[in-house]
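for the recovery benchmark. tokens below, seq after
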């Protein structure tokens, strides 16, 4: 079992003392960080869709029947944003699920040290 904590003030010292307790859960930590990365990438979809929307609507305003010809743009944008939101639901669930699992397991390990 890992050594009990020594009193430390620096952030690096705290990190060094926590490493033995979090090492068994590093795959869950990496997975949670990967989900966070995917969430950050998914957040970049909105500005791209907005740019595409503005460009397409600008083109559509010069057409004789913009409403009838612009329905495909509306459907495409709706599908992209709906898909992104569904993906975000699973990403957020995974982050919370594995983050809580890591917290519970590390808390259990830290609690066992005091016994």
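predicted aa per position
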């Amino acid at each position: 079992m890992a050594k009990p904590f020594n009193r430390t003030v620096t952030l690096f010292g705290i990190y060094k003392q926590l490493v033995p307790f979090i090492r068994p859960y590093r795959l869950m930590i990496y997975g949670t960080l990967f989900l966070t990365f995917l969430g950050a990438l998914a957040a970049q979809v909105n500005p791209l869709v907005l740019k595409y929307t503005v460009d397409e609507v600008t083109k559509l305003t010069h057409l004789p029947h913009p409403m009838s010809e612009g329905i495909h743009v509306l459907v495409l944008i709706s599908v992209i944003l709906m898909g992104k939101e569904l993906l975000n639901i699973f990403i957020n669930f995974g982050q919370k699920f594995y983050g809580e699992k890591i917290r519970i397991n590390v808390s259990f390990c830290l609690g066992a040290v005091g016994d």
